[in-house]
Amino acid sequence: MVASELPQRAGRPPGRAVVVGAGLVGLSVAWFLQEHGVEVCVVDRSGVAAGASWGNAGWLSPALAVPLPEPSVLRYGLRALLDPDAPLSVPPSAGLAAWRFLARFALNCTAGRWRRSMAAYLGINALALEAYDTLLQGGVEVSTPEAPIMAVFDGPGSDDHAALQHEIEAIRGVGQEVRVRALAGEDLRRAAPLVAPSLASGLLIEGQRYIDPGATALALARAVEARGGQVRAGFNARALRHGPGGIAVEAWAGPPERGDAVVLATGAWLSELARPLGIRVPVQAGRGYSFSVEAAEPLEGPLYLPGTRVACTPYRGGVRVAGTMEFRPPDHPLDPARITSIIKATRPLLPGVDWGSVADPWVGPRPVTSDGLPLVGATRAPGVYVAGGHGMWGITLGPATGKLLADQIVTGRVPPPIAPFDPLRPALPTPL
To answer: Among 11, 105, 165, 227, which residue's Cβ finds the most Cβ atoms within 10 Å?
Structure first.
C-alpha cells in the first residue's frame, strides 16, 4: 500500500515509533517520545552521532541561531570562491546538485527574507536551553556549562567587529534578546589569554552554553536504552512501506523495523528518503571540519574568530577548533587541505595554542536548507515526520526540536514554534 492510500488515524497517538538517524536531533525526538509513553526504536546506518553531531564546536548559542542566507553571506561567498583557503569551499567535485542548491540559496539572500526567517526562529530559540535542562532533570548525564561566547577582533573599528555588531542589532530588531558586553585592553587579555595582542577588542555574548557533543549524544542514547528503547547501528534504511502492521522501515540488509509513526532525522541524507514524501526544500551537506589541540592556558569558554570564521571550544583539557563550510557530497572523505587552511588562518591569532599537537581531525556534513529554515513536522505520508535541516544549529536546537515534534506526533497539533518549519512548504525555483 502506498502512503497516499493509507487513511490518517486522527487523534490516535502511536504506540511505537521508529526514528531513522541517531544524531542529537533523532535521539532527542526519541527521548521526548518516551516522555509520552511511546515505545521507540532508533536506527542508524553507522552509529550514534556518526554524522554531524560528533565533532562540531558544541555551542549552545540560541542568541546566534539565525538563518544562514542573508545578503552579506552572498557577498562574502562570491569573494570566497576565488580563494582556495577561504572558510567557504565549493570544490569542482561538488557536482551539479550543489551548484543548483547554491543558486536557490542565493535567491534567499535578501534582507526581507532574512527578517521573515529570523522571526521564524524566535519561538524555538527561546526554548533551546530549557530543553537541555529537561534532559538533565530527566536523568540524562549531560553537562552544559554556561559561558559567554567571546568574539575577538583587530579593533572596535574593524570590518569584522562592525559586521557582527550589525548582525546583533538586526537580530534584536526582529525581537530576540541578545546580551552583549564589550571588552578591550587588559580586560580582554585576562579573559582571552590565548589570543594574539593584535586582537584588541572583543564582544561577550552572554547567557550561552557549550557541550561535548559526542559525549552528549552517547549519554542521550544510553538514556533512551535505559528506558526500554532500542538504538540499532548498522541499519541502512532504504524505503518506507505502509501496510496493515504499520509503517515498515526497510533496510538494504536484514529485516525491517515497524512502527505506528516514523521520524526521518537523517541529517544531510534527509532528501534520500524524504523527497518522495512531498519535501520540496532541498537539503545539502555543508561540511564542517574540526580538530583538537593543546594550549598553554585553559580556554574558559567558547571563542569566536569572525575574521577566519573559526569557532573554538574547551574540549577535554584542550581546545576544539572548528571551521569551514564545504559543499561536497556528505560521504566524501576528509580533505586534509581544509584542516591545513584552518590552521594557516588561525595560527597567527592564537599563539597560545600548540599547533604541533593537532589530533582528532574530523569532518561532518551539516544539513543546510536552501531557505535557511529547518524541516520539522509531518510529511504527506500519514504517520511519517521529518526532523532536520538545522544547518549549523542542530546541536543548539536538537532537544527543543525533539520536544516540539514529539508533542505534535502524540497530540496531532502543531506547536507554534515549529509551524514555520513545515516540511511541505514550497521552495523557490532554481534558476539553473
So the answer is: 105
Which neighbouring-strand residues pair with 376?
387
Angle CA 391–179–368, to nearest 5: 5
Nearest one of 420, 418, 406, 410 to 27, comparing CA atoms: 406
Chain centroid offset of residue 25 CA = 9
Q: Are 65 and 372 in contact (CB under 8 A)?
A: no
Per-residue CA distances from 323 to 240, 359, 411 (Å): 35, 15, 39
pTM over 0.85: yes
Structure confidence at residue 4 as a pLDDT band (50, 70, 90): very low
Edge-to-edge strand ranges of the sheet holding 39-44: 230-233, 39-44, 16-20, 261-264, 384-388, 375-378
The mean pLDDT value of the chain amounts to: 92
Q: CB-based burial of residue 323 (10 Å sphere; 0-12 exposed, 13-18 middle, 19+ buried)?
A: buried
Does residue 62 contact residue 149 with C-beta atoms inside 8 Å?
no
102-128 as b/e: b if 16+ CB within 10 A: bebbbbbbeeebbeebbebbbbbbebb
The b-or-e profile of 388-409 (16+ CB within 10 A means b, else e) is bbbbbbbbbbbbbbbbbbbbbb
Cα–Cα distance list, 44 to 231, 267, 268, 416 (Å):
8, 11, 13, 29
Q: In the 3-class helix/strand/coil scheme, how is 254-306 assigned residue by residue?
A: CCCEEECEEEECCHHHHHHHHHHHCCCCCEEEEEEEEEEEEECCCCCCCEEEC
**pLDDT given for residue 334 in this prediction:** 96
Between CA 102 and CA 317 the distance in angstroms is 38
**Contact (CB, 8 A) for 302 and 210:** yes
E-strand spans in 31-70? 39-44, 59-60
Instruction: Look up residue 146 and give its DSSP letter.
Output: B
